[in-house]
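Structure (tokenized):
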């Protein structure tokens, strides 16, 4: 799905310096490439992370809900994640608009307009956000009780600079939203662990009691091997203990699967949040690089993209 952002695949050596309007300006393709990897990784990784929930019977309001039931928590989570995929699609569109800045000079005015349009699409995709043009043609972005304006500059340096406050605001919203959906992911699994723990406690006590009885009976048989009644009782206790141990092993196996799902899912969401944070920081770094006519430092962005891509690849193998 993802052309893997391999180690060094977007190395700093690829970051060239292009000429624009008679001065040096950053090459935005590495930023766009890393952003694409993050966008695709988050979209695919979220699908893979929540997939295990679809196979686990879960308790909902003290009722055991089987996989495939419309009341199963996976149904809601899957629908919610479909909306988050749209957010990452908008990240991809915005990054592509930035990459277009490197196109021919004759197209740069058009690219600047597309950049503002992509910011509108990006902000509109985040739950709780809004973005619309006012009568003066300025894009107004609202979210987290904050309002920022994005003017449509035809000069690329000013266009990127004007878009950055909105990008930072949107990134805060994405991170907040991913945190909330990670809780939505984790909550039913934690409930499942609690139910399994409650079910396991009496079985543990029963298994321990049977083991003590079996061990005591074994000593009696060893002391008097000729007593067939003692041997029969040991056989009965062995059978009961084996059944209890098998039941306990099954519950422990189910708990381990749920714990693994929690660990892997939360690792993905945390990595996705860190990647979005690095993406926003890199966008701010582009603004500075434009002002200073230098190569932007995209080391952290590239590292986060590689890390997230690695987690997604691991999810694929599970």
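Design, position by position:
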């Amino acid at each position: 799905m993802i052309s893997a952002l391999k180690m060094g695949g977007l190395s700093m050596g690829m970051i060239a310096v292009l000429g624009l309007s008679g001065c040096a300006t950053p090459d935005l393709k590495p930023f766009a490439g890393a952003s694409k990897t993050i966008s695709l990784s988050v979209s695919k990784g979220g699908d893979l992370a929540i997939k295990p929930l679809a196979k686990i019977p879960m308790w909902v309001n003290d009722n055991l809900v089987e996989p495939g039931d419309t009341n199963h928590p996976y149904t809601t989570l899957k629908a919610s994640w479909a909306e988050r995929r749209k957010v990452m699609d908008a990240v991809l569109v915005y990054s592509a608009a930035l990459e277009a800045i490197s196109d021919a000079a004759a197209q740069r005015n058009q690219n600047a307009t597309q950049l503002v349009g992509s910011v509108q699409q990006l902000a509109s995709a985040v739950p709780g956000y809004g973005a619309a043009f006012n009568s003066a043609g300025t894009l107004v972005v609202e979210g987290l009780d904050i309002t920022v304006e994005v003017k449509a500059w035809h000069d690329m340096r000013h266009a990127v600079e004007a878009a950055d406050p909105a990008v930072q605001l949107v990134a805060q919203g994405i991170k907040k939203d991913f945190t909330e959906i990670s809780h939505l992911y984790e909550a039913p699994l934690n409930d499942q662990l609690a139910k399994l723990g409650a079910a396991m406690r009496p079985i543990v006590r029963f298994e321990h009691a049977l083991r003590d009885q079996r061990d005591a009976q074994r000593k009696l048989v060893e002391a008097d091997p000729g007593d067939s009644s003692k041997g029969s009782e040991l056989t009965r206790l062995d059978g009961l203990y084996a059944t209890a141990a098998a039941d306990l092993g099954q519950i422990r196996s189910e708990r381990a699967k749920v714990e693994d799902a929690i660990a892997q899912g939360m690792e993905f969401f945390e990595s996705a949040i860190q990647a979005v944070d690095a993406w926003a920081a890199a966008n701010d770094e582009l603004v500075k690089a434009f002002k200073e006519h230098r190569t932007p430092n995209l080391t952290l962005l590239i590292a986060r993209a590689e890390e997230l891509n690695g987690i997604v690849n691991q999810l694929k193998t599970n």
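Reviewer-requested clarification: Confidence is low (pLDDT under 50) at residues 1-23. DSSP finds six helices and seven strands in the chain.
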